[in-house]
Structure formats: structure tokens, C-alpha cells
Amino acid sequence: KGLMTQGMVCHQTFKSKDGNWLFPKDIVKKNNKYFLKKTNEEVYSGRIEKMSKSKKNVVDPLTIVKKYGSDTARIFMVSDSPPERDMEWNISGVEGSFKFLNRLVRMVEETEKPKEIVNLDSVDKNTVPLIKIHQTINDVTEGIEKFNFNVCIAKLYELTNSLSRLNVTDNIDLNIKFFGLKILSQLLSPFAPHHAEEIWSMLKQKDLVCNIEWPKANKKFLDTDQVTIGVQINGKLRSKITYDKSLSNKEIENLALSLEIIKKHLSNNRPRRVIVIPERIVNIVI
User: Which helix (H) or strand (E) holds 106?
Assistant: First the structure.
């Protein structure tokens, strides 16, 4: 029903001293300079431009697939930028996507299946990990509908980090973590189908994850009395705080300033200014 103009895939260009275009696969970087792999001859680095055969700034996706797998290539390509904008092909971004998928698999391997299943819908609505899980379901679902695939991947990263920090002390915590990993498998499926199926199988689930009904966010956990926001210092994110919506701006400020990492950056000095935007961000100016 609608046409979306796709952005271009871009890559840096390279030229030899005699002015010939060179393939990126033939170049190696040393001490912020570029050299030909075979001859060690220094080459000129040009602008980052849309990939074209004439300028040889092209990368064969099959080489990425052979080394890292197709799921890594897919995750990287949709996580870099919105589909309507240009993206720069960067090998470090590919490696980051590869590490993310491997980290997720390791976390599943280290998580036991709960011996007793708990109905998590009956758990207190202010349970932070459950709030994060249902917010992620909601955000990824909306992101797919709006073609904001890069936002979806960012939310999957956040949920993975949240579950990895979850300190499992009882059966309810284990149920929450196990539930969160199942949701991650489902939400990951459109972007990295092979890893999603592998994770689903490792969690001892029946059928294929692609045949399972898409998860729905429980509004109980979306409409909560608590909110989690970032705490910045001079515009750079340093930590996060979770607080009750009834707190005043001054109480939110005090909570942010009480964080150990914030105290460390302040070095016992008072900040020049603290900007509190309720339910969005706290920015500390030093």
C-alpha cells in the first residue's frame, strides 16, 4: 500500500598512488594509515560513498555470511540505521552483532528451566524485569509496524542486558528470566531466524518458534507506577534510575545524585546544574 525509498549502502573508497580504485578487502589499516595487503604500499583513503563497482568500494555479503553467518549479517544490516537512510558498512559493526548473538546463546545455556512454573500475570505490576519484558514486546511490535528495525534491535540489546543482570535468588526470578529468554527468541525470530530457533530449542520448547503466536504485551505491566530513565553527565549516559511516578523533581534529582557512579564523576563537588525531565531523563551538568 506504500512505497518506501531505501537508503544506499555506503563504504569508504580507496585509491592507489597511480589513481586506480582499490577493493576494501585488499586494504589493511595500520597506525591510522591504509596499505595494500600484498605489497604493503600506502594507499589513499577517500570519501565514504554509496557502493559501486566503478569505485570498487563494494563488499561481497557472502564473505560475511561464510565467516559470521547469515543471522549476523541480517542483524547488522537492520541495526545500523533506519531503512530509508544511508548506512555505512563497517566490519566492527558486523563483529558487534556476532558477539551479541553469541552472548545470547551463552546466557540461554547458563539458564536452567524452572522446575515449577509460576503464573507471572499474577506477579506485582511494579516488578522491574517484567516491566522491561513487556515494554520490549510493545516497542519491538511497534517498531516492526513502522519499519524502525534499528529501534527493534536496540530494544533486544537492552532486554538482553537487563536479563543478564537479573540476580536469580528464587523460583519467581528464574521464571521471569526463563520467560524473558522465550520472549527474546520470539522477538528475535524475524531478524535472526536461525539463532531464534536454536534458542527456542535450547529452552526445551515444542514446535518451531516461527509457528508460535506473536507475543502480546500485558497492559498491566505497561501502565505501572514506576518508571526507568537514564542519568546523563554533560549529555553522556552514565546510569539509570527506577523510581515511583509520585516522586517530585527534587526527589528524582537526589536519587540520581545518590548513585555511586555519579558521585565518582562528581568527585565530591556539587554539579553546576541538574535538569530533570520527569519520565524521560536526568542531565547533570558539571
Answer: helix 91-109
What angle separates helix 61-68 from helix 91-109, to the nearest 10 degrees?
Answer: 30
The span from the CA of 191 to the CA of 126, in Å, is 30
Q: How far is CA 45 from CA 8, 89, 91, 101, 110, in A?
A: 20, 15, 16, 32, 45
In angstroms, the CA 130 to CA 119 distance is 12
State pLDDT tens for residues 11-49: 889 998 888 999 888 888 888 889 998 888 898 888 888
Angle at 135 between CA 179 and CA 204, to 5 degrees: 15
pTM recorded for the entire structure: 0.71
Residue 170, C-beta contacts closer than 8 angstroms, at least 6 positions apart: none
> What is the three-class DSSP state of 185?
helix
What count of Cα atoms within 13 Å lies in the side-chain half-sphere of residue 33? 8
What is the 8-class DSSP label of residue 19? S
Beta strands per DSSP E along 59-101: 87-88
Q: State pLDDT tens for residues 196-253.
A: 999 999 999 989 999 999 999 988 888 767 778 889 999 888 888 888 888 899 999 9
